[in-house]
Amino acid sequence: MSCNLKLNEASIQIVNQFLPLSLQLGLEITKSNLGGTFIDFGIKSKGGIQAGLELARTCMAGLASISLTPSHLDAWRGPSIFVATDHPVLSCLASQYAGWQIAVGKFFAMGSGPMRAHYASEDLFNLILGKETASQVVGILETGKIPSDDVFSFLSTKLNLSPDKITLLGAPTGSIAGSIQIVARALETAMHKLLELKFPLDSIQYGTGQAPIAPPSPDFNKAIGRTNDAILYGAEVHLWVDTDDEIISNLGPKVPSCSSSDYGQPFEEIFRNAKGDFYKIDPMLFSPAKVHFYNIKTGRCFQFGNFNAEILRKSWN
Question: What mean pLDDT is reported for the chain?
Answer without folding.
Answer: 95
